[in-house]
Amino acid sequence: MRRPLQRLAAWRLARARSLAPMVLADTAPLDLQILGRVLVHAALVGIAAGLFGAAFFVALEYGQALLLEGLAGYRPLRAAGEIAVTPPGHAPFRPWLLVALPALGGLACGLLTRLAPETRGGGADAVIEAFHHRDGSIRKRVVWVKALASISTLATGGAGGREGPTMQVGGAIGALVARALRLTPRERRILVVAGVAAGVSAVFRTPLGAALLAVEMLYRDGFESDALVPSVLASVVSYSVVTSIFGESTLFAHAPRYPFEPTHLPLYLLLALCVAALAAGFEASLRGVRGALARTPLPEWVRPAAGGLLLGLLCTPAIAFVGHAIGEPGQGLGILGGGYGAVQISITGAEWLPEGWRGVELLLLLCAAKLLASALTIGSGGSAGDFAPSLVLGGLFGGAFGRAASLLLQDPAIDPGAFALVGMGAFYGGIAHVPLSALVLVCEMAGSYDLLVPLMLAEAVAFVALRRRTLYAAQVDTPRDSPVHRDAFVLDVLRRIRVREVMDPQREVVRFERKARAAEMLERAAATAGQDVFPVLDREGKVLGVIASEALRVLATVPEAGAVVVAMDLMAPAVVVGPDDDLRVAIELIIARGVRELLVVDESGHLLGLLDEAEINRVHLDAARRAEKAAVFTTAP
Question: 20 to 30 A from 200, CA-CA: which of 170, 186, 249, 541?
Fold first, then answer.
């Protein structure tokens, strides 16, 4: 008689145990066992992203040396820490070819991105969207499509950066590792973030800033805490791989020291306000180009070619004019490509950079040209990052601001390079809502933490001024607003509600004595609707165990057992909670034990009532609805 009941109980418990990890794995805190496993996987992601970053950099440099420099005669400016590939020959400047190259590169990019439309544009926004809305799932083809599309765009003069492509490819590598190892959705999301950190670290050689950026860029007001340690490890591993190949250096040369001057803080505050206005204009220009091209009859895959053609037509005359003025035909001053060489000029100056107000004017003109070029490249769907243009625009404007302040105030202590670096951090930290990571990134790229205080002030001001603007439309406000964390938020609500607040103390509970006969139990159970477990009590009213309704149904099919079976024969251990336990404890017990009802007992074991799964579900549903309403309200325009 007991064997069928034992088998049934064993089946239900096994089913509950198999379901419990799926329900709770994405909401429970990251324990040490999971963290240790994820760290090993993050190291693998870091190695793969570092090797990819190195290969991508070399392929891009060779492509640029062959096409832009070797054929068109374009001479890009480079930052002090950038590694250059020597072109095959010193070609004369060919303006007609420079007009055509960005269009041809855009066409190749558009054809490639037809295979994976999510690779259009910068790349960071696509990773953020995949994290929040697809549990970190990124298609395998993104790795090679994004790489080839980005090389096609950037090697032919596209005005964007390398970091957006490496962000997306790094995230795709993380998702690929998770898929190969058959990890949970939660672990996959963490590896995607770690891959983003590794991709940025491979390009900029900024291990700490890259790790902070990866966990901060997902939200406007928060960060992904579970992914911080794996991101740091992946970033360090990727950095080690790249520096072992290319050597260790900072991206920008800089002054030996930037002494702190408290009297300059009002100037940094004013710079932050101006940079915030410029950042808002950059974001509006990206939207404007996207909207203008969307209203044309051009198919989406042709738009990068149209943007490239406009880029060539508008920027080639400026490049020709500047080259003629300084005696260097084809000198682009950072208008095409990443543009970090232009920021280097803002920081340290150059022999050919005019002194006085003419130098200020030239930097501002370069800033305007770079804004237009980047908007045409990225806004049209070209595969190029928006991180580099943000830093370049902030650096050019900051350098111009510092020179203008020095001329107006006649203060020899004002270093325009300091204002260029602060402008970089304020621009990207404000428009991308990543103030902490932007601060660290700029310090690492410059190799100096002397500007920590001005950067903190400027980024705080820009962050507040740009609250209603964002470079990444897929960002959500906080972790609780993300679909992947909404269940965790609901469970946190359940943790604040006690069992006594939900259970019905007036509910009639059918209970049995330990020696109750089968006929009596079947009769009383048949007269009861909605009760799933029947407590068995001793003479003092303390709970001895429970009889499941399934056991009584099996008993009813065996008439000959009715004369000999008593309650003690059918009794199983009771699953109990106390009146002061929270509902999260209760729901975890229900899932883990595979039951529908829990006994509520006091400290001495006396029965107080029953807690039904439906009562918890009602509270859970109310909390979920409130969370959804809050998410809709906070994300509404």
Answer: 186
Structure tokens at 411: 């203060």
For 594-625, write each residue's pLDDT tens digit: 788 888 888 888 888 888 877 777 776 676 56
- What distance in Å separates the CA atoms of residue 157 and residue 119, rounded to the nearest whole number? 18
Categorize the per-residue pLDDT at 204 as very low, low, confident or very high, splitting at 50, 70 and 90: confident
**What value, to the nearest 5°, has the Cα angle with vertex 409 and ends 420 and 277?**
45
Whether the model clears a pTM of 0.85, i.e. scores above it, the answer is no
- Asked if 227 contacts 194 with a C-beta cutoff of 8 angstroms, the reply is yes
Instruction: List the one residue out of 367, 339, 333, 348 whose CA is nearest residue 417.
Output: 348
Q: Per-residue pLDDT tens for 453-499? A: 999 999 999 999 998 899 998 888 888 778 877 655 656 667 778 88
Q: Using an 8 Å Cβ cutoff, are 167 and 123 in contact?
A: yes
Q: In 507-582, which ranges are continuous DSSP H helix?
A: 518-526, 549-556, 567-570
| Parallel/antiparallel/unpaired status of strands 533-537 and 607-612 | unpaired
Q: CA–CA separation, 195 vs 314, rounded Å? A: 36
Written as six digits, the tokens of 569 are 């024969």
Look at residues 457, 310, 320, 439 and name the one whose alpha carbon lies nearest to residue 379.
Answer: 310
Query: Model confidence over 374-425: pLDDT tens digits?
Result: 999 999 999 998 888 999 999 999 999 999 999 999 888 888 889 999 999 9
Q: Are 214 and 440 in contact (CB under 8 A)?
A: no
- Coil, helix or strand for 607? strand
Question: What distance lies between CA 12 and its chain's CA centroid?
Answer: 39
CA 336 to chain centre: 28
With a pLDDT cut of 90, the percent of the chain lying above it is 39
What's phi and psi for 513, nearest 5 deg?
Answer: -80, 165
Q: Identify the CA nearest to 199 among candidates 383, 389, 55.
A: 55
169 close to 406: Cβ distance less than 8 angstroms: no
Q: Which residue has the tokens 């009861």?
A: 528
pLDDT for residue 399: 93
Tell me the two tokens of residue 263.
Answer: 């009297």
Distances (CA, A) of 539 to 425, 525, 544, 547: 74, 20, 10, 17
Beta bridge partners of 601: 607
CATH architecture of 32-247+257-483: Orthogonal Bundle (1.10)
Q: Which of 599, 614, 590, 623 is nearest to 16 (CA)?
A: 590
Q: Which residues of 585-602 are buried (b: 16+ CB within 10 A; e: fewer)?
A: bbbbbbbbbbbbbbbbbe
CA 251 from chain center: how many Å? Answer: 24
DSSP letter, residue 609: E
Question: What are the structural domain ranges in the chain?
Answer: 2-24+488-623, 32-247+257-483
Helix (H, G, I), strand (E, B) or coil at 545: strand
The backbone region for 381, taken as left when phi is positive above 0, alpha when psi lies in -120 to 50, beta otherwise, is left
Residue 200 · residue 167 · CB < 8 Å: yes
Q: How big is the chain, counted in residues?
A: 637
**Residues near 484 by beta carbon (within 8 Å), at least 6 away in sequence:** 26, 131, 132, 135, 185, 189
Tokens (6 digits) for 107: 């066409």
d(CA 444, CA 559): 81
| CATH value of 2-24+488-623 in 3.30.10.20, 3.40.50.740, 3.40.50.2000, 3.10.580.10 | 3.10.580.10
